[in-house]
Structure formats: C-alpha cells, structure tokens
C-alpha cells in the first residue's frame, strides 16, 4: 500500500486526498456496478487513500437509504489491507420521503441519534469515525443541532464532529457550542467553478485549525469535473506543462491553498481515483498556483 502525505482531522491522521463515494449511488448519468464500485474503493485504498466519505442519503431511490454506506462497508471488509488505518466519514440530518425529490431536514437529537445508529450498523463499526450534520435544519436553532452532535459524541456513537454546508456565522456558533478543538471538519462545496460562497469558510478553517474538505472539488459529477481544463484554460496549460491531467492539477492547487484542505473527489472508476490520489505528490510552482488562484477564485 502506498503512503500518501497526511493531514489532520481531529484526532485522526488521513491521506491528503480522500475518496467521495457518492457517485456509486447517485449523481451523474451512469452508475457503476457494485463490483466496479468496490474495485474503485480498493484502488483508492491501494493508492494510499485512507479517508472515505459517504452519507446515509446517498442512494438511487428514497427507499434505499444507506445504499452507499453498505457498498463502502462491503468494500472495506473485502479489502486485504489494514482496515485500521482507514477513516470513514458519513453524514445525517437529511430525510428522504416517498417522493424522489422530497428531501427534508431534521436536525433534532432524536433524529440524528436514530440516523447515526443506523449508519453505525450499516458501516459495521463500534463508533463512526467522523459524523457530519449534513445540512442546516432551518426549523430549529443551529446551536441545538450542534449540541445534538456533541451528545452523540458523549454517548460514544461518533468519534469526531463535522458539519457540512455551513457559513462562517454558523461555524462560529458551532465552535461556541463544542469549544476549541471540538469541531474536527467542515465539508463545503469548493472548486474552481464554485468558491464564491466557500472560500471564506476555507480561510476560517485555516485560522481555527479545522479540516476543510471540499466536496465536488473538481466541479461536480454532472460534467464539471471532466471539463475543468476546458472551462479554465490556465489549469489546462499548467497540466500540459507537467504532463498530467487537469484534474490532478486542480487538486494539487487546492491542497496548496491551506494545510487544512483535504479534497474528497468523487470517483466511479479505479483509474479516476488513482489519478486523483497522485495529486498529493504533484508540486506546483508558486507562480502556477498564483496564476490559477487569480483566474478562478472569487474574492
């Protein structure tokens, strides 16, 4: 197994590039077979990736909650390497009802406990390594749901607390509730295509020693990731200079923004995650990083 450069998420040391497992179950046009999804996880782990990101709502249908978690659990149980080195993150707080488009929010302690216990069982672990509140529930005080996560941590259901899709004001509230060192990670959308509302959160995480995990770091499974070099010519130019893919350059640029950044690119093929993992060893020149930042960052 390859050893990649490491970064911190709370008490855990993880590879600087993670694997986003969502494409196994939703998003994009074509879903991989179960065998291909498992092979993709195995390829990630063999390449040195030690962080796998999933969520309970990642599923093809509303009545298949936990679909993605089950695939991740099966992949980990059938991998021949050392499972103890792998950190699995999952999320709760979004509901799915009888209609395919009926995504609701529930940040109550009772719902989050129920969701976390179900995720823990599907993942086959004693405690969830990193558990995110997936999206804010606007029907209740933000601090109330953060306290719910803290309670799950006290009960030993989860190890580290994360929040997703949060703004700076909400991050400040979370930190006030859990205290210094209590918030391990923030997962927000961030990419060359989308950073106008998330660069401030990246900077906040850097200032407060909290891991910042960009989701859709290449621009999304709907075609943004594939076309990142076409949309941003400077990335394509830097990629050509290094003889690597635009996707690899994009991830390397993100890693260079802060030691807190841990991108979690989605993948549905072994070749894709191998290329992404290689970004951790790609060194861009300062001038190249500055050119990319000047071209893509919305400040």
From TrEMBL:
GO annotation, cellular component aspect: cytoplasm
Span of domain NADP-dependent oxidoreductase: 17-294
The species this protein was found in: Propioniciclava flava
Keywords (A to Z) from UniProt: Oxidoreductase
The keyword ATP-binding is assigned to this record: no
Keyword Plastid: no
InterPro entries: AKR (IPR020471), Aldo-Keto_reductase (IPR050791), NAD(P)_OxRdtase_dom_sf (IPR036812), NADP_OxRdtase_dom (IPR023210)
MF (Gene Ontology): oxidoreductase activity
Protein name: Aldo/keto reductase
């Amino acid at each position: 197994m390859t050893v990649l450069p490491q970064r911190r998420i709370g008490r855990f040391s993880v590879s600087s590039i993670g694997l986003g497992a969502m494409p196994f179950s939703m998003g994009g046009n074509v879903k991989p077979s179960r065998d291909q999804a498992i092979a993709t996880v195995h390829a990630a782990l063999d390449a040195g990736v030690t962080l796998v990101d999933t969520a309970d709502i990642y599923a093809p249908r509303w009545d298949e909650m936990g679909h993605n978690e089950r695939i991740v659990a099966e992949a980990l149980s059938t991998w021949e390497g050392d499972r103890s080195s792998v950190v699995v993150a999952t999320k709760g707080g979004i509901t799915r009802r009888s209609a395919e488009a009926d995504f609701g929010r529930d940040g109550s302690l009772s719902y989050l406990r129920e969701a976390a216990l179900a995720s823990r069982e599907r993942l086959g672990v004693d405690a969830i390594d990193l558990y995110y509140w997936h999206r804010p529930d606007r029907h209740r005080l933000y601090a109330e749901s953060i306290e719910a996560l803290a309670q799950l941590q006290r009960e030993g259901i989860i190890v580290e607390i994360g929040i997703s899709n949060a703004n700076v004001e909400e991050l400040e509230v979370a930190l006030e509730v859990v205290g210094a060192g209590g918030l391990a990670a923030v997962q927000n959308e961030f990419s060359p295509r989308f950073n106008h509302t998330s660069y401030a959160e990246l900077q906040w995480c850097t200032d407060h020693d909290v891991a910042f995990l960009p989701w859709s770091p290449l621009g999304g499974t709907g075609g943004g990731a594939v076309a990142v070099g076409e949309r941003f010519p400077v990335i394509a130019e830097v990629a050509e200079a290094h003889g690597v893919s635009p996707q690899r350059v994009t991830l390397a640029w993100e890693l260079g923004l802060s030691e807190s950044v841990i991108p979690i690119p989605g993948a549905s093929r072994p070749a894709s995650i191998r290329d992404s993992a290689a970004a951790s060893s790609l060194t861009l020149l300062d001038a190249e990083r500055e050119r990319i930042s000047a071209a893509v960052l919305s400040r």
